[in-house]
Write a structure and sequence with these properties.
The structure holds two protein chains of two kinds. Chain A is mainly alpha-helical. Chain A is built from four helices and no strands. Chain B folds into four domains: 100 residues, Orthogonal Bundle (Helix Hairpins); 125 residues, NAD(P)-binding Rossmann-like Domain (Rossmann fold, 3-Layer(aba) Sandwich); 144 residues, Rossmann fold; 108 residues, Alpha-Beta Plaits. The chains are: A mainly alpha, B alpha/beta. Chain A: InterPro entries: DUF6394.
Chain lengths: 125, 551
């Protein structure tokens, strides 16, 4: 067992589950989507990204790229939400944008986990 | 460890500090939004995520702004207190790690290596790799850089030397790297595999090192021409066995010069001219006949002995080294026993400049008329040696550098000297007088190929008609004045070498010509061979008609 794999696997999968947890539910109903879950998703996503730094394998670089995509999408969702709150009132239409950005991040996270699991399975040791 | 992986190592090492920093920000932000506050009217309010991030931002970076929407309640203050104690150390830890890594040698070296590699990759010219920024290397680079035919890349292990090189501010710039040139990946980074890499020159004093570099270079690039200096300590035999194209052996060059000087001062003069000296026989070029004293051990001594034997010169061999030196400098009897009083010449050729100086001084005090030849090992001692009024100084680094330069820039000089030395004594005198009369006492020596890059018009013209040397040089403008040019040699593309071709010799495309010339004449010559109308006028004596050019 490789402790580094356990830790990075933990964060990569946690990033996916938190991301999914935030996205789950009707797109335009604000009550279904907890802001805390979004913050947790961002935090864990960033940790997952950091865990992938310095991995010079081919899959390592793709993993890092997907992580960056997920970070970007989630940060965009959060900033959009924050800006709307500061300047006007959140409407279901505007909120859809927040959730759809997070869904984009979810896709990146799914790719990330798939790659991670695939790579781990391919290891012969 | 290769340098590439250092960058990855850097990222790896930054993982923990970055995660700590991330958590130290995230947790206080979440707590601050969860803890209730009170506004001015006593209503319960919660900080938004933005407010929370704002507060954590200035707290963690120890900026400590202190601007908040409403005064904090006690639970809020508790959280901020926690924030300060957790996030400030985390922030300092992360910053500290980055700074420590930036100061780490391997990391900075990796960055430098990457910059160097990029510079090499972007060279769009033919280039030469010079291993070792030694005294000889510096002289060679100075010369090559002035010609600007090739770009130069330098590898040296010593930081001081590379810094010295960078402070020279060469133009065009010379990419240089502090690295061990005997490592394959260093050579690869220097672009040795590139087809634009034409020469590799290794000028270290250590033969083993030169050997190592040459073996690797030969494996990495078959077409590369390799020039290696045969070190002072060991012999250079191995070097030529492993496919080194040219071995610079300063000892055999000096021996050859002494050999030539013994045969004829004119021959010596021709040789030292092509190796960078004046073309003028001075009194000190005439070696005395008589008994010689050779103060040198090891390789130089052996080479000298062979030369003296060949010329049937009587000599006494003194083995002087550090151990016997004490005795020598204090005890003049040692020299007297060796017969210095009736000797004609003394050669101070040890590998220690201090000993050489002391030999010269002692010899001069005993026998003021003795002819003194000195070997100078270190360039820095130059002024000391010139103060001694020695008759001949052989500076190893200078000789090595010029030899390397000749091989790169005008390889025909080697053939020229070989051919000339085969002739009889009158021929040397004639050749020398021919050059000095027609040109001057310090003519420039140039090798050029008749191709589209160097002689555009001539190379085109030669495909249609023939041109003799005389047509270009003798009275080209029909004003009764010849160009001050002497063609010393002509090398056909099939390798045939013609020494001192006469004026009726016909030129062929891709001939290499070696000639002595003055700068103004060289400029005129280049104008002629590069311009159709000029060339046509020179050959035919009339201006070319525009549309009947070249048939």
């Amino acid at each position: 067992m490789n402790s580094e794999k356990v830790i990075s696997g933990f964060f990569i999968i946690l990033a996916l589950t938190l991301n999914f947890g935030f996205v789950y539910g009707d797109f335009d109903v604000i009550a279904y989507h907890s802001v805390y879950e979004l913050v947790a998703a961002i935090t864990v996503n960033i940790i997952a990204t950091i865990m992938k730094l310095g991995d010079k394998t081919q899959t390592g670089s793709v993993l890092l790229a997907t992580s960056f995509v997920a970070d970007l999408q989630l940060l965009a969702a959060a900033s959009f939400w924050g800006i709307v709150n500061m300047t006007s009132v959140m409407t279901p239409e505007l909120f859809t944008i927040v959730v759809s950005l997070a869904v984009g991040a979810l896709v990146a996270n799914i790719i990330s986990v798939t790659l991670f699991v695939g790579e781990t399975l391919l290891l012969k040791r | 460890m290769s340098n590439e992986s250092t960058i990855w190592l850097f990222l790896r090492k930054m993982r923990t500090p970055l995660i700590v920093l991330n958590l130290a920000h995230a947790i206080p932000v979440i707590l601050l939004t969860a803890v209730p506050g009170v506004d001015g009217e006593g209503k319960t309010v919660y900080l938004s995520f933005f407010d929370a991030m704002y507060i954590v931002g200035y707290t963690a970076t120890t900026i400590g702004f202190g601007e908040i929407p409403y005064a904090f309640t006690y639970p809020q203050r508790l959280v901020v207190l926690l924030t300060i104690y957790s996030s400030v150390p985390a922030w300092i830890y992360a910053l500290g790690s980055i700074i420590a890594l930036l100061q780490e040698k391997t990391f900075t070296n990796a960055i430098k290596m990457n910059t160097f590699r990029r510079k090499v990759r972007h060279l769009r010219q033919d280039f030469i790799i010079v291993c070792g920024y030694t005294d000889a290397g510096k002289l060679l680079i100075d010369r090559l850089n002035k010609d600007n035919l090739y770009r130069i890349i330098v590898i040296d292990k010593s930081i001081e030397k590379i810094e010295a090189l960078q402070s020279e501010m060469y133009l065009p710039s010379i990419p240089a790297i502090v690295a061990d040139a005997s490592m394959t990946n260093v050579l690869k980074s220097s672009g040795i595999e590139s087809p634009q890499c034409k020469f590799l020159v290794t000028l270290f004093d250590d033969d083993q090192l030169n050997l190592k570099i040459c073996v690797r270079a030969r494996v990495l690039n078959q077409g590369l021409r390799i020039i290696a200096r045969s070190g002072i300590k060991q012999g250079g035999e191995n070097l030529s066995n492993i496919g080194v194209n040219h071995v610079i052996d300063a000892f055999s060059i000096i021996s050859k010069r002494i050999d030539f000087a013994l045969r004829s001062p004119y021959l010596f003069n021709l040789l030292s001219w092509v190796q960078g000296g004046n073309l003028h026989v001075s009194k000190s070029d005439i070696l005395p006949i008589g008994k010689y004293i050779v103060c040198s051990k090891g390789r130089f001594g052996n080479t000298l002995q062979k030369t003296l034997d060949n010329n049937r010169i009587e000599y006494t061999y003194l083995d002087i080294n550090k151990d016997t030196h004490e005795k020598v400098s204090s005890d003049q009897d040692f020299f007297i026993q060796a017969g210095i009083m009736d000797a004609a010449c003394i050669i101070a050729g040890t590998n220690d400049d201090a000993i050489n100086l002391s030999i010269v001084a002692t010899a001069r005090s005993l026998n003021p008329k003795i002819f003194v030849i000195v070997r100078e090992n270190e360039l820095e001692e130059r002024s000391l040696f010139s103060n001694l009024r020695v008759d001949k100084i052989f500076i190893l680094d200078q000789i090595a550098a010029l030899d390397g330069y000749n091989y790169i820039d005008r390889p025909m000089t080697f053939k020229f000297i070989d051919e000339v030395s085969k002739y009889n004594k009158e021929m040397y005198v004639d050749t020398l007088l021919l050059i000095t009369k027609k040109v001057n006492k310090r003519p420039a020596l140039i090798e050029m190929e008749i191709d589209e890059h160097h002689m555009y018009a001539l190379s085109r013209y030669l495909t249609e008609a023939s041109v003799s040397i005389g047509q270009l040089i003798r009275n080209p403008y029909h004003d009764g004045e010849d160009l001050e040019i002497v063609i010393l040699g002509l090398e056909r593309s099939n390798g045939e070498f013609i020494l001192l071709p006469d004026e009726s010799t016909l030129l062929q495309p891709n001939d290499h010509i070696l000639f002595a010339s003055t700068r103004p004449s060289l400029d005129r010559f280049q104008t002629i061979v590069n311009h159709y109308y000029e060339l046509y006028f020179v050959i035919h004596g009339v201006e070319a008609r525009r549309f009947k050019l070249f048939g």
